Every structure is written in structure tokens, then in C-alpha cells.
Amino acid sequence: MFYADQHMHSNISFDSHTPRTTMAEAALGAGLSALCFTDHYDVVDENGHIHPTYDWQPARRQQAEACATLGDQLVLGYGIEVGNAPENFAAAEGVLQEPGLDLVIASIHNGSAALNRVDYYCADYDSTALCHRHLEDYFGSLLQLADWGQFDVLGHLPYPLRYMRDRDHQPVTLDPYQDVIREILRRTVQAGRGIELNTCLYHPDSAADYAGILTTFRELGGEIVTVGADAHTPNNVGHAIADGYQLLCQCGFRYVSHFVGRTPQFHSLSKEVSSHA
Ligand SMILES: [Zn+2]
Ligand SMILES: [Zn+2]
User: Considering the entire predicted model, what is its pTM?
Assistant: First the structure.
């Protein structure tokens, strides 16, 4: 049994208060075999400010501490979640020169300049019209990301629905965006990259979103999928990872990817899921 949570934050991120070692202890407690720290580097931050560089020192220090404490008990990946790279691809590429990276997740957390770079988390979705304006802009940014291709997996594809549907109860779905999602996935496959099944707030609606995305990805020849709980606190470490593995199986995938040195290691799902059952 090899459960790997491939998306995790620590207090190096602006929105977490927990050191890496404590998150790693939680991962051990949750029965995980591996995790990857993917703290935020947002080219445009939650306030809409541009950051062309990133200070890796805190991540290097905390990674070394966590490895010294728990590195003999589970695999501790050294990664990053790069947000809003289309705002400045060159800046993102510079930051990704960091040696020893295991995994790069590319995400879009903010609207583009046309939407004043609003953070989806901060927006107040009081109408479906506003949701659709943001979703059109969002998928446009994801197309640019897929074309860029300098990442390992695309992060949480249905991300804005967390706030539009799950938090603000707007009746929006991904249905009107199936064509653009297909194109994003096609370009991702063409670039030899993967996608992430993000199990933060995992519920029947989000599972259905991912079932559609994963099925299309597989039809297009996509094989690389990571699973990550996007935990910002110890209690969410490993959340619904087993459910994510099961959904991958249901969508016809035989392997889940665990990234080491920015290279996917393919773990057989039949073995993982059945040995856990
Ligand atoms: Zn994210
Ligand atoms: Zn995240």
C-alpha cells in the first residue's frame, strides 16, 4: 500500500500556520507513505501584487528539518505550487530553477488583469453571471498554462467552483466549459504533462467534476495523475486520498503518479486500492 498525498502546504505559505515537520507527523499518523510539500509561490499574490522572485530559504530549511526528523519513515517530496504563471512566465521559470525539486503544480488562483486580478477566494459570488465571467477568464488562463507546459501537473482544475458553488451556493457547473476543458487537457497531454485530482473538500459534486475531467483526460491519452488533499492544517493531511485512488480506478486508470525529481513514478492502482480494502 503506497498512499502519496502530493499537494500540501505549511507555514511557508501565507495561508497556513503549521511547520513542515508537524504536517509530516500528521501524514505518518494518517498512514501515508509519501507526501510532497507544495507551498505557494504566486506570481500574482492574493492581493493582486506581482512577485517576480521567490525566497527558497525557508522551504530549504524546513525541508531539511522535516527530513532529519521523519525522512526515514516516509518519502518527503520537495515541491511548489506555482500560481498565476501566465502573468509572467519568465518569472515562474526563474523560480523553478531551484535544484532538487520533485514536483511542480501549476494553478490559477486569481482572475486575469481584465478582472482586476481578483482572488477567487476573496470574490463574493452573488450572481451566476459573475461566476461565468470568472470561469471564462479562468479557463482562458488554464489554456495559456497548458501551452506553457513548464509544470508537472495542472492543479485543481475545478478550483473556482469551491467558492462559487460550494461556498456561495451559485448553481454553476462545468457543463458549458466542456470544450475548453477538453482543449486544456489535449494540450496538457501533448506537452507530456499531467493533472491533479485534488481531494480538498471532496464530496459527490466535486467527485463528479473530476470523473468527467479524468475520463476526458484518459480518452485523450493522458496517463499522469497525482492525488493531493491540499491540506493547510494537520487534520486535513491525507484527506480522501483513498477515495481519489478509487475514483481513478473507476475512470479506467491503472496507475497513480508519485513524482520524484520531477519524474512520475507509476504505482499500480489495483494493488493500492485492493490492498487497502
Ligand atoms: Zn491552489
Ligand atoms: Zn494548494
Answer: 0.96
